[in-house]
Each structure stands twice: as structure tokens, then as C-alpha cells.
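This is your field. Please look over both lines of this record.
***
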Amino acid sequence: MIRKRVLARGEVQGVGFRYHARAQALHLGLVGYARNRQDGSVELEIEGREEPISRMLLWLQTGPRYALVTALEVSDIAAIGESEFQITD
């Protein structure tokens, strides 16, 4: 298992980004969380196998229909063995 921290920047708040990201993560069998940040970005941590994580990162480049992702910052972090994907504020 691997885990990534992702910061999605652009028009990513107020467009259902976290909820669509959760649905995509669940579809891919990933766990972690998504939360809005005060600077207008969305922070995610995603954990799972490498191939589904790669697919999630591709999806995050555009996000849901009304989002406009201008940048993704991705970093490797230690897997922690979570069991679900949460949306937090």
C-alpha cells in the first residue's frame, strides 16, 4: 500500500469536488480523506495500491464537471492503514 498527499488548486471549492473525489476513490477501492483548506484549495490523502492511485491522480487533474484544476501538488507519505474515505471540513 502507498499513500499520497494531494493539493488541488484552482476552482475546486463550491463545485462538489470533495464529494466527487470520494465517489471516485470508493470506485477505485481507495481510502483517505478530502477537505477544503482556507486558501481555497482541496487537500486529499489517498491510500491504496499503486495502479488505482495513479488512476485517481489522473482523475484529479480535471476533477468533476464544474471544477477547474489549475495545479496538483503530490507528495508521498507513509501509509497508515485507514479503512474508509472521509470528507472533512
